[in-house]
Amino acid sequence: MVDVATNLFNIEENIRQACENVNRDPEDIHLIAVTKYVTIERTKEAINAGINNLGENRNEGFLEKYNEIQNQVQWHFIGSLQSRKVKDIINQVDFIHSLDRLSLAKEINKRAAHPVNCFIQVNVSGEESKHGISPEEVVTFIEQLSIYENIKVVGLMTMAPHVDDPENVRPVFKKLKNLRDDVTKKSLPHAPCKWLSMGMSNDYHIAIEEGATHVRIGSKLVG
Fold first, then answer.
1. DSSP 8-state secondary structure symbol assigned to residue 73
2. pLDDT band at 44 (very low <50, low <70, confident <90, very high)
């Protein structure tokens, strides 16, 4: 298995190139190492290589690593979150990337000891297998969240279809950026919504060219 530091160097070069293509600053890109399939040892290797954002998608996997690593990094919960499991993780994670229903928002609000940074998950591609609200629901949904003092909408998130040619998902990323712009224009106090969590191992360079601020990379970074 290639060491994480080598993978990180290559990915950071690709990020720099993608930013250069569209006159963006690489410093604006947050690289999240998706560690859901790797051991605690491999996760620590990523931290030692300079990674400071980790993404997990299951409560059990997250808590196992959190108990070992604690607050050495920022923790991103990137999987679908069941309302009944919110209480187990909500005061340990720094970001939730999968807020997609009012029942979940209500539970987060009730269980959180402080405002939680949330990305709204949007199913831009319309695939039945993917979670998230429809693009048409985004603005109304975010407006409805204003009553929850512990929800801070920091951005939008989507998962693009997995295709052979990443160029084919460019329209998905463009649409999420346009939706984000629609929200930010409203200047909602609870929803600054400045960020875009989009792009994974196979398409992160395209996502960055289309405005991604947070890319979630697993296989090409940590395996």
1. S
2. very high
